[in-house]
Automatic annotation (TrEMBL):
Signal peptide range: 1-15
Catalytic activity: a long-chain fatty acid + ATP + CoA = a long-chain fatty acyl-CoA + AMP + diphosphate
Organism: Ceratopteris richardii
Name assigned to this protein: AMP-dependent synthetase/ligase domain-containing protein
Superkingdom field: Eukaryota
Keywords, sorted A to Z: ATP-binding, Ligase, Nucleotide-binding, Signal
InterPro entries assigned to the protein according to its UniProt record, in alphabetical order: AMP-binding_CS (IPR020845), AMP-dep_synth/lig_dom (IPR000873), ANL_N_sf (IPR042099)
AMP-dependent synthetase/ligase domain span: 98-518
Protein family: Belongs to the ATP-dependent AMP-binding enzyme family.
GO CC, alphabetical: endoplasmic reticulum; membrane
Gene Ontology molecular function: ATP binding; long-chain fatty acid-CoA ligase activity
Length: 706
């Protein structure tokens, strides 16, 4: 028995040592930096901030061309064949589109570069001139990247627009940037054509064909002055009439990326080629053994900086990118025909990026599958999960022992097949990831899942959890291309002298910090701190730009960052949408049933809730008209009929004010007692004391999210 016992004990002990070393590892170190006084961290592995992934790759155009030449025959961009599309009835009488998709068809790096060059010449032949801007308004797909790189071949700046953006925001984005050529898929093309009279500078539209082929769009809504051409025909034009490229420099504007916006109309963030290349340089160093053997599943919006940065990193490494969509991601995704494969099962990716809402969906899907099997299968799963959780969190010594192999083989191998069975790492960004979901993915999918932190204004990555970091709730140390600084926020009571950890507003400095907001100098000056000014760029005395995020963080002893608060009353929901609490409250207080209201949003949920002081005359009048019996006003506020009536009123007010669906409270709590300055819940001017309200009604808020 002794040899067997030692065979188990040795890997267990080794696992404990490995975990102990990981926990004590220094990941970020203090550094002296210019700008406003504070505590500044850099990545401990690099003495100097990285600016390029390799010598000579100073722009995204350089990076793309050189990668395509280095990996010419390697598969690069993959698109699934559409075999069948059909409508299926639902239980409520509606129909839902289901698709049957086939294998991935690939373009090599060499073929993709050739198409980008032809597209570049084609839009010139179509009439797009030097100094004019293109916009890409499309779902994520291979043609998106080819169009982007084609524009870069002639130093055309590209405006990126979310496919889900509303009409007002779309018109604003295209008009503000004076876009002359719009590149879109056929679904988005209808929106562009319908808005034709409102688009002041558009002259040309290039549309990407639907997968599986489709008819050309009707000429019915096309303005007479516009030229409308298919993506394929533009490539053919370029093939017939090649034009010598005019490549950008590192200082050239690559992308003007319109964010979804926290309040009002979206803002365009101005990114240079140098900004984006710096992000590629830094992030590429953080993924172990990144290279041509990797396969990345792309399904997030390319108009979001997280996805654009991720695909740029894969391109630089020579990896393959297979395209999918959130609705076809797994075998059980809503758009996949039952019995056919989802994107992950067909592609078998090694790397993925995700937002928390997607990961929560995967987690819930697995749990439903386990619950449906029940019996012994469920018992074994729960036992395996508990044992692996104990191992990872250090309360048991089997993190790397034989028992891990047993549970992986017996239980988790089948679950990992949901994502193709080969995923070796995943990055979560865009919103906070719950510790429960992070642990679930660690255990069931058998991979590190790192949280990243960054903003459009910093070209995505500012910090990134390292793969051997088993902690949850943190966003890792600074990436190698930027500094993270904490500065005092006296008003909120966060100071760099706080114990046990320094706390403060997060400020980001380095070559990935963008130029500012397009045609919005006032907002640029507000969040890009000015120490001296060189033309458009805000810099400190050392020549480094600093972006003030408005987020509050704290540094752990190992140099990792944790996000703990936000300066403004703006919250990002689970799906990445921003909610301006004050704006929503100003709209909803118009309801006749509302005396006062506080809207509450939690980053771990996809909807907002509200607690409100009900108007006694209005609510009692409603109750009498409906013959609702109540003993007191407090009793009436608990009645289901009263809550339903007030909620409907809020929804009506919200609709008339054109609030987004995610801005409208899904659940509410009615209160009978008014908020007064004496109670400490409002100021003398009757403005909400939000933090006091949250603390006072913490139990009610928790119940609303149950």
């Amino acid at each position: 028995m002794a040899p067997v016992f030692l065979g188990i004990l040795l890997p267990v002990a080794l696992g404990l040592v490995m975990k102990s070393r990981s926990d004590n590892k220094k990941r970020g170190v203090l550094v002296e930096a210019g700008g406003e006084p504070g505590i500044t961290m850099r990545n401990q592995r690099f003495l100097k901030l990285l600016e390029t992934p390799w010598e000579g790759a100073n722009t995204l155009a350089d990076l793309f061309e050189q990668a395509c030449k280095m990996h010419a025959t390697q598969k690069f961009l993959g698109t699934r064949e559409l075999l069948k599309k059909e409508l299926e009835p639902t239980s409520d009488g509606r129909t839902f589109e289901k698709v049957t998709l086939g294998r991935y068809v690939w373009l090599s790096y060499g073929e993709a570069f050739e198409q980008a060059c032809y597209f570049a010449s084609g839009i010139v032949a179509l009439g797009h001139q030097k100094g004019e801007r293109c916009a890409i308004f499309s779902e994520t797909r291979a043609d998106w990247i080819i169009a982007l790189q084609g524009c870069f071949r002639h130093n055309f700046s590209v405006v990126t627009v979310y496919a889900s953006l509303g009409e007002e925001a779309l018109v604003h984005s295209l008009n503000e940037t004076e876009v002359t050529t719009v590149i879109c898929d056929q679904k988005q093309m209808k929106k562009v054509l319908d808005l034709g009279t409102k688009l002041e500078t558009v002259k040309r539209v290039v549309y990407m064909s639907e997968l599986g082929g489709s008819q050309d769009p009707s000429n019915e809504h096309i303005p007479d002055s516009w030229t409308v051409e298919s993506f394929e025909e533009v490539i053919n034009l370029g093939r017939k009439s090649p034009v010598e490229p005019e490549l950008p420099t590192a200082e050239s504007v690559a992308v003007i990326m319109y964010t979804s916006g926290s309040t009002g109309l979206p803002k365009g963030v101005v990114m240079t080629h140098g900004n984006m290349v710096a992000t590629v340089a830094g992030v590429s160093k953080l993924v172990p053994e990144l290279g041509p053997k990797d396969v990345y599943l792309a399904y997030l919006p390319l108009a979001h900086v997280l996805e654009l940065a991720a695909e740029s990193v894969i391109c630089a490494s020579g990896g393959a990118i297979g395209y999918g969509s959130p609705l076809t991601l797994t075998d059980t995704s809503s758009k996949i025909k039952k019995g056919s494969k989802g994107d992950a099962a067909e592609l078998s990716p090694t790397l993925m990026a995700a937002v928390p809402a997607i990961l929560d969906r995967v987690r819930d899907g697995v749990r439903k599958m386990v619950d449906a099997k029940g019996g012994l299968s469920k018992t074994i799963f729960e036992l395996a999960y508990r044992r692996r959780l104990a191992a990872i969190e250090g309360s048991w010594l089997g993190a790397w022992g034989p028992e891990k192999i047993l549970w992986d083989t017996l239980v988790f191998k089948r679950i990992r097949a949901v994502l193709g069975g080969r995923v070796r790492g995943m990055l979560s960004g865009g919103a906070p990831l719950s510790g429960d979901t992070q642990r679930f993915m660690n255990i069931c999918m058998g991979m590190p899942i790192g949280q990243g932190y960054g903003l459009t204004e910093t070209c995505a990555g500012a910090s990134f959890s390292e793969w051997d970091d088993l902690t949850v709730g943190r966003v890792g140390p600074p990436v190698p291309h930027c500094y993270l600084k904490l500065i005092n926020w006296e008003e909120g009571g966060y100071r760099i002298t706080d114990s046990p950890m320094p706390r403060g507003e997060i400020v980001i400095g380095g070559p990935s910090v963008t130029l500012g907001y397009f045609k919005n100098q006032a907002k640029t000056d507000e969040v890009y701190k000015i120490f001296s000014t060189i033309q458009y760029i805000q810099v400190d005395e050392t020549g480094m730009r600093w972006f003030y995020t408005g987020d509050i963080g704290q540094f752990h002893s190992d140099g990792c960052l944790e996000i703990i608060d936000r300066k403004k009353d703006i919250v990002k929901l689970q799906h990445g949408e921003y909610v301006s609490l004050g704006k929503v409250e100003a709209v909803l207080i118009v309801s006749p049933y509302v005396d006062n209201i506080m809207v509450h949003a939690d980053p771990f949920h996809s909807y907002v809730i509200a607690i409100l002081v009900a108007s006694q005359p209005a609510l009692e009048g409603f109750a009498r008209s409906k013959d609702i019996q109540f003993e007191s006003f407090e009793d009436l506020c608990e009645k289901e009929e009263a809550i339903k009536e007030v909620l409907q009123s809020l929804q009506k007010v919200a609709k008339s004010a054109r609030l987004e669906k995610f801005e409208v409270p899904a659940k509410i709590k009615l209160l009978s007692e008014p908020w007064t300055p004496e109670s400490g819940l409002v100021t003398a001017a009757l403005k909400l004391k939000r933090e006091n309200l949250r603390k006072n009604f913490s139990d009610e808020l928790k119940k609303l999210y149950l």
